[in-house]
Amino acid sequence: MRFTRRQFIGLIGAAGLSGCARVGLDKVADMDVMPGGPGRFTFAAIGDLHVLDARSTGIVNQAVDAINARDDVRFTIVLGDLATDGEYVELNLAHTSLARFEKPHFLVPGNHDVNMRAKNIYGNYTKLFGDANWRDEEEGWLFMGIDSTNEAKSDVAIRPDQIAWIEKQLKKTNTKRPIALMTHHPFNPNTKYRVQNADEVLAMFSEHNLKLVAAGHFHGNQEETRDGILFTTTACCSSTRDNHDGTSAKGYRLFQVDKETVTTEFVAVVA
Ligand SMILES: [Fe+2]
Ligand SMILES: [Fe+2]
């Protein structure tokens, strides 16, 4: 997760109650901090940027500018694969483009953000973007970003250290609070590249109120609901890669939250 001081101040100002909710979170029954239950808000998600060089940042800048132009978007989640080979120069170019966001943005890494030639394969990413795992509260919702990578593999299982982190978060989360899980590798019940232990991870939320799992990696628009949970993947926002489903539109996804209901739409940046 990374945002500038200006963005952070903006977040606290815009978030109101949710800004307060960060204080002493471990000490309160956290649903109590949102009187009247979860609220209404809009956020965006973008992913699979696959930045390679300065030229390939063009579409990313275009998407960020389009999101900035929308007053209703409160924050943006970047769903991994910012780079091509996890090289510092690629990730730094992506970082510069994402710094154009005028409101907060939160990130998870993808398999292309891992540098398999480095001693610390996750070092370039964490140097630029900080912790891969994060939690953020918005209008009575809990957003959890998890690192789904396992080296640079395309087919993965969520690692034991990540499962332990999720377990720890759930222990301090009111079971009624709606939860949105943000991850690079998809959990959609019928997607290609589905996380191998997706059902095991989803079962961890059985006593909680998981409502949304948003992912990238598939490079294509998919929306599927199972057991009251909305699962999505989104077309890539890249000029260096194609969509895996053969479609040509590139862009980002909007999520409209109304209490516990989430609706979503894809927004093309390049048709
Ligand atoms: Fe990708
Ligand atoms: Fe990926």
CATH classification, class level: Alpha Beta
Reading the helices and strands in chain order gives HHEHEHEHEEHEHEEEEE
- Structure summary, number of beta strands: 11
Give the neighbour order of strands across the main sheet: 4-5-6-7-9-8
- Average pLDDT metric: 90
Q: Helix segment count?
A: 7
| Rg calc | 17 Å
Could you give a short account of the major beta sheet?
Answer: 6 strands, mixed
- The tally of domains stands at 1
> In terms of per-residue confidence, which ranges show pLDDT below 50 for 5 or more consecutive residues?
8-29
Strand content: 15-25%
Task: Give the distinct bound molecules.
Answer: fe (ii) ion
Describe the structure.
The chain has 271 residues and is an alpha/beta fold. The chain has one domain: Metallo-dependent phosphatases (Purple Acid Phosphatase, chain A, domain 2). The chain is built from 7 helices and 11 strands. The chain has a 6-stranded mixed sheet. The longest helix is centred in the middle third of the chain and has 12 residues. Bound molecules: fe (ii) ion (FE2) (2 copies). The site of one fe (ii) ion has 6 residues, from loops.
Can I get a quick summary?
The protein is α/β, with parallel strands linked by helices and 271 residues long.
Which secondary structure elements does this structure contain, and how are they paired or packed?
Layout lengths: L4 H11 L1 H5 L18 E7 L11 H11 L4 E6 L9 H11 L6 E3 L15 H7 L4 E5 L2 E5 L14 H12 L6 E5 L15 H6 L5 E6 L7 E5 L2 E5 L16 E9 L2 E10 L1
Parallel strand pairs: 1-2, 2-3, 5-6, 6-7, 7-9
Antiparallel strand pairs: 1-10, 4-5, 8-9, 10-11
Helix pairs in contact: 4-5
The protein binds fe (ii) ion (FE2) (2 copies).
